């Protein structure tokens, strides 16, 4: 974990819905936690050296606790199982200070679309927007009512009438109709989507088909799509400021190669999701494998994520 770290105690651990654990993290005696903005996440150190990112889902003004919701995912790399099976109330763990790559921007209207555990940052956004008297709607999609987190919190909220629940196992009439929700494209509205990769892809695809500008579509992924069909091959990496040249071998990331040569780059998710390791590119064309940069930003080829992205050609020159 890079940057500021904090020690917190797991003050409470409950099951918020089927397979979803809710953890309340409290500061140690006499301390308070840094404030954050809706959309922020924290790094959490887990057993066996695992490091995972979880969105904060409590009131951003609170300094006496952080709340995170964690879905048990059998397809995960072990982080969710560690939270569910190995973390317990009373334990002291280390976390990173809040960071926000999914912040709200001023808009006449805001449209929030959550898929499953993707509700965590969007619920925080909904509460922030409601408190500001902003115009917004939240569409919350889950597999079933039993797997829907924060139902009581939402139903008792002043903005409950602005929330629409959609369950996969419910009647057809209540399922999410993306073309209807996203029509028409509106220059005064911004769309925020979070959830499984397929859900995010479907929302973004539908929005683009209806003419929504990229600048008005915001999303946050929990993991990067698999780089299918992409074979690693070695390439040369030149560091302009330090005037060093090194080789990145196949099977090793740029970040790993840099660390092996004593060059430290801040890294967090190691999947190209969080944007922590963004590094300026001066020459060469990156092969972008991240889910953080927009398509427009990737076309500029002036920055990349060394935790997962590589070079399309034989050489990259970085501003390091």
Task: Write out key terms for the chains shown.
320 residues, alpha/beta, 5-stranded mixed sheet, 18 strands
Outline the low-pLDDT stretches.
none
| Structural class by secondary-structure content | alpha/beta
Query: How many β-strand runs?
Result: 18
For the biggest sheet, the summary is:
5 strands, parallel
N-end to C-end Cα span:
20 Å
Biggest sheet: strand arrangement:
9-8-7-10-11
Radius of gyration: 21 Å
Q: Give the overall form.
A: globular
Strand content: 25-35%
SS field, number of helical segments: 7
> What helical percentage do the residues reach?
10-25%
| Average pLDDT, all residues | 92
Order of helices and strands: EEEEEHEEHEHEHEHEEEHEEHEEE
Structure write-up:
- Strands 9-8-7-10-11 form a 5-stranded parallel beta sheet, sandwiched between helices. A 5-stranded mixed beta sheet has the order 13-12-18-14-16.
- The chain has helices at residues 79-86, 119-131, 151-155, 178-182, 197-209, 254-260, 295-300, and strands at residues 5-17, 20-27, 41-45, 51-55, 66-71, 92-96, 109-115, 135-142, 163-167, 189-194, 217-220, 235-239, 244-248, 279-283, 286-287, 303-304, 310-311, 315-318.
- Helix 5 (197-209) links the parallel strand 10 and strand 11 (217-220).
- The model has no long low-confidence stretch (mean pLDDT 92).
- It is α/β, with parallel strands linked by helices.
- 18% of the residues lie in helices and 30% in strands.
């Amino acid at each position: 974990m890079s940057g500021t770290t904090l020690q917190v105690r797991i003050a409470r651990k409950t099951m918020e819905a089927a397979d979803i654990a809710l953890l309340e993290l409290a500061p140690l005696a006499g301390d308070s936690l840094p404030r954050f903005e809706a959309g922020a996440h924290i790094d959490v150190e887990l057993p066996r050296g695992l490091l995972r990112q979880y969105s904060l889902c409590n009131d951003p003004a609170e300094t006496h606790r952080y709340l995170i919701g964690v879905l048990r995912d059998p397809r995960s790399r072990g982080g969710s199982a560690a939270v569910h099976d190995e973390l317990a109330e009373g334990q002291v763990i280390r976390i990173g200070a809040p960071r926000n790559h999914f912040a709200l921007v001023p808009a006449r209207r805001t449209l929030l679309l959550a898929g499953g555990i993707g509700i965590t940052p969007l619920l925080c956004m909904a509460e922030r927007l409601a408190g500001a008297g902003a115009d917004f709607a939240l569409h919350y999609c889950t597999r079933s009512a039993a797997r829907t987190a924060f139902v009581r919190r939402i139903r008792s909220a002043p903005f409950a009438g602005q929330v629409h629940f959609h369950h996969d196992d419910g009647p057809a009439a209540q399922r999410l109709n993306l073309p209807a929700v996203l029509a028409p494209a509106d220059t005064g509205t911004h769309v925020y989507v979070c959830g499984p990769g397929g859900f995010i892809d479907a929302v973004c695809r539908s929005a683009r088909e209806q003419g929504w500008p990229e600048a008005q579509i915001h999303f946050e992924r929990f993991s990067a799509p698999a780089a299918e069909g992409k074979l690693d091959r070695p390439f040369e990496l030149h560091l302009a400021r330090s005037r060093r040249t090194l080789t990145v071998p196949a099977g090793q990331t740029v970040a790993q190669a840099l660390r092996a040569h004593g060059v430290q780059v801040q890294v967090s998710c190691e999947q190209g999701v969080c944007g922590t390791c963004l590094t300026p590119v001066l020459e060469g064309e990156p092969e972008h494998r991240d889910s953080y940069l927009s398509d427009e930003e990737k076309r500029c080829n002036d920055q990349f994520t060394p935790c997962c992205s590589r070079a399309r050609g034989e050489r990259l020159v970085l501003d390091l």
